[in-house]
Amino acid sequence: MTQIFLLGTFHFRESDIDFYTEDTQRQLCDTNERLKKFNPDAITLEAAAHAQSAVNESYEKFSLEDLSDFDKMRNETLGTINIYGSTFPISYKNESIQIGYRLGKTMGAGKIHAIDDDSILDDIDEEIPERIKIAFDKHLEKMNAVEGKTILEILRYLNSDEWSYHNQQLYLVNNAIGAGGSYTGANFFGQWYMRNLKIFANLQKLSESHERVFSLYGCGHLYILRELINLCEDMELVDYRDYLT
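Now predict its structure.
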């Protein structure tokens, strides 16, 4: 039985938080102290599985000392990675670095595992009924109630059942778009499920040779991945509250 500690996070690159300050780094260090108590023997990230070599190279280049060198983090990168058909710099303003790589180096992990699938989902490119827009915005408002919170407080909320419920509702209300005709919403939702099924397949493979897996993922994936982990007889989902409270 492999224990899976699935931690949902926001995407740092989209945040207004300044990650290159003593206060923010102190908050991240506090979070890291909590996470390392899980004592993982494998760490996974939301990085495309086919880009494992780029993850290997950037992780080898990364040092815990980088996290106290604010100029370096602002002005340098850890190389590049090819995802979604394009090449991107590996910036320090990235949860994979600030949480995943930090935890890996702290635990002495020799490798970080990339388990994502970077298939591009089709856009919903037809007129969205007003009733669906209203329902969508109602749930989105609930999800965005994180202003003024610390990083640890944000993570606690994003990993709550409440947040995942509202996030999953976004997909469900959009699922009705094109019903009886194009089924645009259902096709989009199906592609989203398929991406998560591929992520889970990579988790299944990794769990065959590891006992305690820490998996850092965008919080939008939590609902489906938790469902799959709970259904799997060979996995046990760890309660995030055991480490974030």
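The first strand starts at residue 2 and ends at 9.
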